[in-house]
Amino acid sequence: MRAALLLVVLAACDKGDSANTSPFGEGAANAAGPRDAIVEAWKKGGLTPSPLTPAQVAVGKDCQSGTVGAVDVLLCTYPTPADAKAAEDAGLGWVGDATGASQASGAVLVVVADRRKSDPSGRTINQMMKLAPR
Predict the structure, then answer these.
(1) Under a CB-based contact definition with an 8 Å cutoff, are residues 133 and 108 in contact?
(2) pTM over 0.85
(3) Which has the closest alpha carbon to 130: 105, 108, 113, 107?
(4) If both were cysteines, with which of 55, 77, 95, 113 could 63 make a disulfide (CB 3.0 to 4.6 Å apart)?
(5) How many other C-beta atoms lie within 10 A of the C-beta of residue 56?
(6) Which residues are bridge partners to 84 per DSSP?
(7) Tens-digit pLDDT string for the chain (134 aa)
(8) Would you tell me the crossing angle of helices 34-44 and 123-131 to the nearest 10 degrees?
(9) 3-state SS assignment for residue 79
(10) How crowded is the C-beta side of 54, counted as CA atoms within 13 Å?
(11) Residue ranges per domain, the chain?
(12) How crowded is residue 96: how many other Cβ atoms within 10 Å of its Cβ?
């Protein structure tokens, strides 16, 4: 009985397109970049990100900023995941004295800063970092 139930569950989960391995839906891996995948993950997690706009910052060359709720966010795309990982300390420089975090998510550096002190428990920041695909 358990084996039959397992087969039914596995068959229901198969979308028939083994080429698409994105957790963000059919075609998401091809249609959207890694920065878009992070924003979509936040939306699916119930967060409300603002539209991102280009940002001129010392953290990286290809960066966009916005907010999630009232928390400032910076997403910088790098050529490789190793480059994004190496930029984590520079991301903390962008956070400054505010509560925040800087974490590589593949080839994207995700940096969040609670400059308005709108997330005193840190729950939103924690959720944002956990939802970002690795």
Answers:
(1) no
(2) no
(3) 105
(4) 55
(5) 7
(6) none
(7) 333 333 333 333 333 333 333 333 333 333 469 999 999 999 999 999 999 999 999 999 999 999 999 999 999 999 999 999 999 999 999 999 999 999 999 999 999 999 999 999 999 999 999 999 98
(8) 130
(9) coil
(10) 3
(11) 1-31, 34-131
(12) 9
